[in-house]
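// run 5 | inverse folding | seed 20
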């Protein structure tokens, strides 16, 4: 069994939802993760807050630090989870149920985790 990271991308530019909407979304997300965990395929994950972030980019061959996670892009990273799956197709089937997909233009990127220790 392989491990896959499901990366949540939001197209809202960091727009803040109401506390009520956040509670609804969090419950949906916890229920979704609970369904994966019930299959013993949830490894872990974290949300990524929009505040207190920096981006380091190269400009003229030197690293430059910008405030915020947004820069000139419209999408933000909202978090990730790691799942165990027998194939990328199974990991994609988990991703299709992610509540983040309720937002127009939002996405879940599915990436196989490459282990540096030779164990896959």
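// decoded
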């Amino acid at each position: 069994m392989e491990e896959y990271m499901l990366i949540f991308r939001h197209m809202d530019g960091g727009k803040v939802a109401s506390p009520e909407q956040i509670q609804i979304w969090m419950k949906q997300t916890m229920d979704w993760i609970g369904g994966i965990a019930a299959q013993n395929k949830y490894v872990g994950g974290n949300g990524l807050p929009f505040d207190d972030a920096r981006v380091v980019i190269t400009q003229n061959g030197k690293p430059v630090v910008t405030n915020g996670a947004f820069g000139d892009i419209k999408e933000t990273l909202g978090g990730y989870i790691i799942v165990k799956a027998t194939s990328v197709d199974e990991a994609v089937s988990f991703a299709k149920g992610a509540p983040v997909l309720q937002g127009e233009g939002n996405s879940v990127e599915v990436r196989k985790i490459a282990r540096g220790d030779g164990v896959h």
